[in-house]
Amino acid sequence: MESKDSNNRFVFAKENYIYLIAGVVLNFIGFYLMQGGGVEDPNDFNAEELFSEVRLTVAPILIVLGYAVIIWGIMKKPRNSDSTK
To answer: For labelling, which of 13, 54, 59, 61 has a CA lying 20 to 30 Å from the CA of 1?
Structure first.
């Protein structure tokens, strides 16, 4: 029979949740930086805005980094694991 304490435990430790939240924030920032570049007039073309360095390099790097942090937060084991109890 399991004790009451084992039913009230979270799947991850606090540190894991911090990594997950940080990864999601990085993804939101990356997707926010990637959006835009559109114009209302289809005959107007602004190459500088569409092909900016932020949109083509910084945003994808932040998105990939965000997913890496999320994966790290899921895979990381807590420091003080009480699995022996």
So the answer is: 13
Q: Which residues contact 55 (CB under 8 A, 6 or more apart)?
A: 33, 34, 36, 37
Q: What is the C-alpha to C-alpha distance for residues 71 and 59, in angstroms, rounded to an integer?
A: 19
* Global model pTM greater than 0.85: no
1-45 pLDDT, tens per residue?
Answer: 555 555 667 788 899 999 999 999 999 999 999 997 777 788 888
> Token pair 């807590």 is at which residue?
78
Contact (Cβ atoms closer than 8 angstroms) between residue 27 and residue 73? no
The answer to whether the beta carbons of residues 23 and 67 sit under 8 Å apart is yes
